Amino acid sequence: MHTLRIRDVQIELYTMKTDALFQPLKLGEKVREIRLRNRWTLEEAGKRAGLAKSTLSKIENEQISPSFDVVQKLAAGLGIDVPQLFVSSSDALISGRRSCTLKGQGKPHPTRTYDHELLATELTQKKMVPFKSTIHARSFDDFSDWIRHSGEEFLLVLSGVITFFSEFYEPVRLEQGDSIYYDAGMGHVCISESEQDAQILWVCTPSDDLMI
Asked: How far is residue 19's CA from residue 64's CA, in Å, rounded to a whole number?
């Protein structure tokens, strides 16, 4: 059986570049760059990718040309998409990442006050975390405490009416189409004011203390 090698993949991926840019990317250097950026040892990165430490070392030192299956394991272990292994640091803005979540197909995450629907869940290490929420809470007293987490957050009302409470400002009433951007480290909650539970879109920066 013919095994697709990494050099074949490089040829395919570079057909859309200009002749001046047809310089073969050194996969090993890219892998090492990502590994060191995450402060992983060879052993740690190898375990994440399901590869032996010696195999990963040979890849980084360009001593072997890995099969496409191995490249897929590498990408998964490094928490990136395969095309990102073939983009130099200077082209980092062109990541080739894309995620489509059809209506009602997000990952449900219900809580006592909100029903969240997480979006784009198949992508790892996202620079933003999008999710839709149905607001069941009807009173500030429905919350045991302020919600706080590091980072920043954007909220857009998709339907209904909400009141947005924040720790340092007066409550604000937001209707369909209204939005608000705020420091998520500041205590905040929102409640539905409309007859039907309001629905909102939240987009926030990822953080370890984000509880949704």
From this structure: 26
